[in-house]
Amino acid sequence: MNYSIIEVVNVNKKIIYKKNISLLCILEINNINIQYQCRSGYCGMCRIELIKGKICYSIKQPIAALFKKNDIFPCYCQPDGNIIIKI
What we know:
The protein is mostly beta strands. The protein is 8% helix and 31% strand. Strands 2-1-7-3-5 form a five-stranded mixed beta sheet, with no helix packed on it. A two-stranded antiparallel sheet has the order 4-6.
């Protein structure tokens, strides 16, 4: 069985994930709400911090301007193994 564990440190929650969907959808399914708007990586509204682990972007890295090194865009990425995030 291939699955990942997503730990959201500031809400003290761990999520077991094995579907091929965006991180934003996983968070929504698990009643963890974050702000978002475009769902395409353009606006940067959903930006959160990746503390540990790797993610992959669907097509290419988002074009939202002025993001920090550990910022990720859950609307547009999927976990690549276990990750720890901060909302």
